[in-house]
Amino acid sequence: MTITGQPAAPASLGRSRGFNAFWSAQILSVLGDSFAQLAVPLLVLDATGSIATAGLLTGVSGTAAVVAGLFAGVVVDRCDRRALLIGADAARMLLFAVIPLVWWLAPAPPVWPLFVLLPLAAAIGMVFQVAAVTAMRGLVPGAELTRANGRLYAGGALASVVGPALAGAVSGWLGPAGAIAVDAASFGLSAALLTLVRLPRRTAGAAEQGERTGPWAEFLAGARFLLRHPVLRPLTGLLTVFILLTYGMDDVVIYHLKHGLGQSDGTVGLVLAAGAAGTVTGSLAVASLRRRFGFAACWTGAVALTGVAVVALAPTRRPAEVGALLLVYFGCLSVGGICSLSLRQEVTPEHLLGRVTAAFWTIHFSLGGLGAAAFTWLAQHHGTTLTFALAGTGGVAVALAALFTAVRRAAPA
C-alpha cells in the first residue's frame, strides 16, 4: 500500500503538531471557500449584470461536486491521502489564480472560463473534504476524535463568519478579482501547512486485498458497509430525513426576518451571527457532552432540541428571540453532526473510510435540495409559522424514531 508520512502512532490532541497544522489548513480552506461565495457572484454581476448567470454557475459547480463525491471515496482509499490533500489545495490555488489573471489582462473578460474553472475547483474540493475526514484517524487517537472534530467545526464556523466580511472589504478595495486572488493565495498557504502533516503507515490487510473484485464493487463498498452496519444504517436514514426538514431553514429564517418582521439587512446579519456563535459553542462543548452522556443521549437529545427550537421560531415577533433560538438550533445541530461524524470515523475500517464517507454524503444530501425547495415554497405561500411548526415537529419525530432503533445504544460497537 501507499505510505504517507512516517509510521508513528497518533499523538494526543494537545501535542500533535500535525493536527495543529491540519486544523490551520482547514480554516484557511474554509476561509477561501467563503471568499469565493461572495467574490464570484460579484464578479459575474460586474461582468454581465445577470443574477441568473450567477445562479447557473452555482448550480453547475454544485453538480460537479456531487458527481465528484460519487468517486472521491475510491480515489481517497486507493491513494496517498496526504499527497491528495496537498495536491487538491495546490490545484485549487492554480485554478483560482487564473481567474484574476483573465480579468486583469483581458479588455473585456469573458465569463465562460468561470464555467470551466469553478466546477473543476468544486470537484477537487469534494475530494479534499473526503480525504480530510479520513486523515483525522491518523492524526489523533480514537478517544479524541470527537474533541478534534469539535475544534475543526468551531474553527470553520469562525472562518465562515469572518470570510465574507473580509471578502467584501477586499472586493471594495481591489475589486472582486482581487478578492479571488486572495482566495487563491489562501489555498497555497493551506497546501504549505499540509506539508507539515505526517500520517501513519497504511498496510494492506487481508480484508482489503480480498475486497478488490472490480471497480463497481469498490465503488459500492462504502454504501454496503453503511447498509449492513446495525447502527450506521438507521442513523444514515434518520439523518437523511432530518436534512430534508432542515436544509432550507436558513432561507426560511431570513424570509421570516425580512418579510415577516420587516427587519433590515444589518439586523439579519446580526441574527445569523448569533447562529454562528451557537455553532462555535456546540462544537467546543460536544466532546464533554458525549463523554458524560454517551453517544445515544447526546445525538438524540441534540436532534430533539433542534426540532423544539424550530417550532419555537413560529410565534417569534422580535429579532432577539429569533437570535436566541438560532443559537440553540445551530449549537445542537453542530453537536449532532460532530457526534455522527466521529462515530463513523470510529467504527469504519481504515481501508473503507473514504468510500463510507462519500457514500454517506451522497445518501445524506440526496433529499436536501427537495426539502429546501419544498419548505421555502411553503413559507412563501402559507407563511413561516406553519413552515416552522411542520419542520420542527418533524425534527422531534426523527429523535423519537431513533429510540426504536439501534441508535438508542449508549456506546454502539
Structural write-up:
By secondary structure, the chain is an all-alpha fold. It has 2 domains: about 15-205, MFS general substrate transporter like domains (Growth Hormone, Chain: A); about 220-410, MFS general substrate transporter like domains (Growth Hormone, Chain: A). The chain contains 15 helices and no strands. The longest helix has about 50 residues, at about 265-315. The radius of gyration is 21 Å and the shape is globular.
What separation lies between the terminal Cα atoms?
28 Å
Task: Name the structural class.
Answer: mainly alpha
User: What portion of residues is helical?
Assistant: over 70%
Q: List the total number of helices.
A: 15
Total domains: 2
Write out key terms for the chains shown.
single chain, about 425 residues, mainly alpha, disordered N terminus, Growth Hormone, Chain: A, 2 domains, 15 helices, globular
Q: What secondary-structure arrangement, pairings included, does this model have?
A:
Elements: H1 17-48, H2 51-78, H3 81-105, H4 114-139, H5 145-174, H6 176-194, H7 206-211, H8 215-228, H9 232-246, H10 249-260, H11 265-313, H12 319-347, H13 353-364, H14 368-382, H15 384-402
